[in-house]
Design brief:
By secondary structure, the chain is of the alpha+beta class. It has 2 domains: 11-121, no CATH class; 128-307, no CATH class. It has helices spanning 79-98, 104-121, 128-146, 151-154, 216-226, 230-243, 302-307, and strands at 11-15, 24-29, 35-39, 51-53, 56-61, 68-73, 165-167, 170-178, 183-186, 199-214, 257-266, 288-291, 299-300. A 6-stranded antiparallel beta sheet has the order 1-2-3-6-5-4, with helices on one face. The protein has a 5-stranded mixed beta sheet with strand order 7-8-10-11-13. Strand 7 (165-167) and strand 8 form a beta hairpin. Helix 1 packs antiparallel against helix 2, helix 2 packs parallel to helix 6 and helix 3 (128-146) packs parallel to helix 5. The longest helix is centred in the N-terminal third of the chain and has 20 residues, at 79-98. The protein is elongated. The N and C termini lie far apart (61 Å). 32% of the residues are buried.
């Protein structure tokens, strides 16, 4: 396309061989030669939000043939990222077409939205502590799936929810420790505030490092294979991306762990915590560490806690 003499249109484009049921094209912007991925969405594209982040821009462009959605590279130094995002979104659409999904534009938009969240929030590779935190969430996700609960519908962490899991007023905050650590970190004054909730529990996921354990990528792959439809698997992949786990993460990245156990604690009157309405005026925010041994009297039955999220006996 770069060899074609520029014309009077906005883009030089070529339609991709697949997918068959979505007009998806690669192209170059005439004004500056910026590479683009161009979609003809029809009326269904009106609800897709524009954005610019990470050197990429999604814009809505008027064209003689109708409005186009254009994902363009705005910072040439991010060309490798742009290529990765485009190929990943194309794979998502092709998987949807293979499974006869009748809303390929929705599949494309959801994957782009996940990338937008990832690029907005991620400033580098996940740290070891961030990996451990996500592992804890995924292991609880797996426990919810095992009892028949709709774990995807309750997992709020990928969308910056105050608590990691929530459904109809019942919330679970996951705290994960590796090895002999007997403390966990509370990151805000609101995190252990149960005001307005039916229940709030802390799930303390205890891990041990082991050569024959699983990495974060292993656990994510295992859970994905357990989901019963491509739509559910796609939604899970999107949630992982919003949570900060990029596709193609090295299977050997991060610690290899095994689950030692999960303890549940009911957050109620007397629970050791700091709440916004109880700290001195002028304290805008605080983080602190909680001693697990101080929580013995608040221990709760895990089966009963999880059953609040559906699928329980």
């Amino acid at each position: 396309m770069a060899a074609v003499v520029p014309g009077d249109r906005l883009f030089r484009t070529r339609r991709l061989a697949g997918p068959a049921r979505l007009d998806l094209r690669v192209g170059l912007r005439e004004t500056d030669g910026a590479p683009c991925l161009v979609v003809s969405p029809g009326a269904a594209g009106a609800g897709i939000s524009s954005f610019e982040t990470g050197g990429l821009r999604l814009s809505r462009v008027a064209d003689p043939g109708g409005v186009l959605l254009v994902l363009s590279l705005e910072e040439p130094a991010r060309r490798e990222l742009f290529a990765a995002v485009c190929s990943d979104c194309l794979r998502a659409v092709m998987r949807g077409e293979d499974e006869a999904d009748d809303d390929l534009l929705g599949v494309f938009a959801a994957r782009l939205s996940a990338w937008r969240a990832f690029l907005r929030d991620q400033i580098g590779a996940l740290s070891r502590s961030e990996m451990i935190g996500i592992i804890g969430e995924l292991l609880l996700f797996g426990q919810l799936t095992d009892i028949g609960a709709d774990a995807l519908a309750t997992w709020r962490a990928p969308d910056d929810g105050l608590h990691d899991f929530e459904m109809a007023g019942d919330s679970i905050e996951v705290k994960t420790s590796l090895g002999g650590a007997r403390q966990f970190h509370v990151s805000t004054l609101d995190q252990l505030d149960d005001a307005g909730l039916t229940s709030l529990h802390v799930a303390h996921v205890r891990l041990i490092e082991s050569p024959d354990g699983e990495t974060l990528a292993d656990i994510a792959d295992r859970i994905e294979t357990q989901l019963d439809s491509e739509r559910a698997r796609g939604a899970f992949r999107n949630a992982l991306l919003r949570r900060g786990l990029a596709p193609g993460t090295d299977d050997d990245a991060g610690p290899r762990v095994r689950l030692a156990g999960t303890d549940f604690y009911a957050v109620r009157d007397g629970f050791p915590r700091l709440r916004r309405g109880e700290v001195a005026l002028g304290i805008a925010e605080a983080t602190y560490e909680l001693e697990v041994r101080a929580l013995a009297e608040f221990q709760a039955d895990g089966t009963a806690v999880l059953s609040r999220f559906g699928g329980g006996q």
